[in-house]
Design brief:
CATH superfamily of the largest domain: Aldehyde Dehydrogenase, Chain A, domain 1
Number of helices: 16
CATH architecture of the largest domain: 3-Layer(aba) Sandwich
Strand order of the largest sheet: 15-17-18-13-12-19-20
Strand content: 15-25%
Helix content: 25-40%
Radius of gyration: 23 Å
Bound molecules: nicotinamide-adenine-dinucleotide
Mean pLDDT: 97
Number of domains: 2
CATH topology of the largest domain: Aldehyde Dehydrogenase, Chain A, domain 1
């Protein structure tokens, strides 16, 4: 089914959103967006350049000196609430765009749109509840702290969860009174553009949000190195994260890096396997495994290893892969390049046992970037498929003997984003929550339904800084201490 995205959008997809209006890019270059389910061209977007980024940073700087900069916390909250309501009103449109652009099954795309609305709602309510402290000090002084915006914030986001990542990063930055320049991914950016239009419709003051689409090495690099940008938020791969951090260091600005993962779930002999099963599988195959917090490693104690493998295998055999619009459990991968990358990993599976795989439905044509999900038994935690982020629908199930070995395997990659523990033993739950190297640990669940309230981020090569919840608001603001001597 062809989706005519141009007919769905109230703006020209080849324009940038700068200073509150849609404007032609200063670059003559264009990027063609494709539908990953059938490789058909969807539309063209601007390949924004350094001049577009300059204009966007200038518009953001101006916004801070004019209407937006004068907004009270209450006013910021109210405009975010209007944006959240408009997102809610447009959930079906946003889901349709995301399914066509990212290849995400429609119900998963819908969940992302609902999550975007939820971020805006949460931050709208939080806007006037972030405050400083008064500090006891010497006699004759009153000392307090103020939370202030950084200024212009740069947001570089990937293609896999555009709406959720924009919600948690741009949503939090606006809450604290920053003015944002957003560079969405060149592979998929229609919902980012629609988000800009929603901000316009909601009456967000001109220049508070600017969106410049374009390729990473041009528009992204220009944004990351721009001296007018006072905070960078990057979500994406480790390699590009390193480049962004280097740029941030040159300009001495703070940076939040949300990078990759190889997140484990630890299943002990006493776990409720039927409770765990949907989480074990869904956390690996959601968005066709193209999720930073995908659980690509399942560590299972020997007493239940065979049982878990069999339960998971049964689920895998029922997983269907097909066009995003048809809403099966899995859609395609984002691009031919990503498919090739994942197949490159699968070609290295010689020392693993393929236990089960999903089914490609008849509607899935050769033109789409489909990869069938695979479940492997793996006795070597150092195997390349058990160590590297594949970013595709692949899970390895690794046996362990005891708690100490489980922790060593779980912590034995360069990443540390998310982990979960399945056990009824309360003391073990508490011990492992401390011992696991991860930004989030879940006990007898995984992901806690997205949880916009819950601080999220990594350790090690998964990055640093926290988004989501109130922690994000501290990250998107700077603390000033005021010491008044009055005698
Ligand atoms: P990527 O790093 O290739 O691209 C991410 C963004 O960076 C895109 O907008 C891209 O245009 C831009 N970019 C690329 N090169 C750039 C450069 N030189 N300078 C500035 N910007 C540049 O990542 P991807 O392939 O789009 O996304 C997949 C990766 O993102 C995975 O590793 C995944 O784990 C990670 N990810 C992490 C999280 C998280 O919250 N931790 C969430 C989603 C995705």
């Amino acid at each position: 089914m062809a989706t005519n995205v141009k007919a769905l959008l109230p703006f020209n997809t080849e324009h940038c959103f700068i200073g509150g209006c849609w404007r032609p890019s200063q670059s003559a270059e264009r990027v063609v967006l494709h539908n990953p389910s059938n490789a058909q061209a969807l539309c063209q977007i601007a390949a924004g350049n350094a001049d577009d980024i300059d204009a966007a940073v200038a518009a953001a700087t101006n916004a801070l000196q004019t209407e937006w900069g004068g907004y009270s916390a209450l006013q910021r909250g109210r405009v975010l609430a209007r944006m959240g309501q408009l997102v809610t009103d447009n959930v079906e449109l946003l889901a349709t765009l995301e399914a066509a652009d990212v290849g995400k099954p429609l119900s998963q795309a819908r969940a992302d749109a609902i999550a975007l609305a939820r971020y805006l709602e949460f931050y709208a309510g939080a806007a006037d509840k972030v405050h400083g402290e008064t500090l006891p000090y010497l006699d004759g002084y009153t000392v307090y702290t103020l939370r202030e915006p950084h200024g212009v914030t740069g947001h570089i986001v990937p293609w896999n969860y555009p709406m959720q990542i924009i919600g948690r990063s741009v949503g939090a930055a606006l809450t604290m009174g920053n003015a944002c320049v957003l560079k969405p991914a060149e592979d998929a950016c229609l919902t980012a553009l629609m988000f800009a239009d929603i901000a316009r419709q909601a009456g967000l003051p001109d220049g508070a949000l600017n969106v410049v689409p374009g390729i990473g090495e041009v528009a992204g690099a220009a944004l990351a190195s721009h001296p007018g940008v006072k905070h960078l938020s990057f979500t994406g791969s480790v390699g590009v994260g390193e480049a962004i951090q280097t740029q941030a260091a040159r300009n001495i600005v703070p940076v939040t890096l949300e990078l990759g993962g190889k997140s484990p779930q630890l299943v002990f002999d006493d776990a409720d396997l039927h409770e765990a099963l949907p989480f074990l599988v869904n956390a690996g195959i959601q968005n066709a495994g193209q999720t930073c917090s995908a659980s690509s490693r399942i560590l299972v104690q020997r007493g239940v290893y065979d049982a878990v493998l069999e339960l998971m295998a049964e689920k895998y055999r029922g997983l269907r892969v097909g066009p995003a619009e048809a809403d099966y459990e899995l859609g395609p991968l984002i691009s031919a390049e990503q498919k090739k990358r994942v197949e490159g990993y699968l070609a290295q599976d010689t020392l693993l046992d393929l236990i089960a795989q999903g089914v490609l439905v008849d509607e899935a044509t050769d033109e789409g970037y489909f990869v069938v999900p695979r479940l492997y038994a793996c006795t070597d935690p150092q195997h390349v498929l058990a160590q590297q982020e594949i970013f595709g629908p692949v899970q390895v199930v690794i046996p362990f003997d005891d708690e100490a070995q489980a922790v060593a395997i779980a912590n034995g990659t360069e990443f540390g984003l998310v982990a979960s523990v399945w056990t009824q033993n309360g003391a073990r739950q508490m011990r492992l929550a401390k011992k696991l190297k991860a930004g989030q640990v879940f006990i007898n669940n995984y992901g806690a339904g997205g949880g916009v309230e819950l601080p999220f981020g990594g350790v090690g090569k998964s990055g640093h800084g926290r988004e989501k919840g109130f922690e994000a608001l501290y990250g998107f603001s700077t603390l000033k201490t005021v010491a008044a001597k009055h005698g």
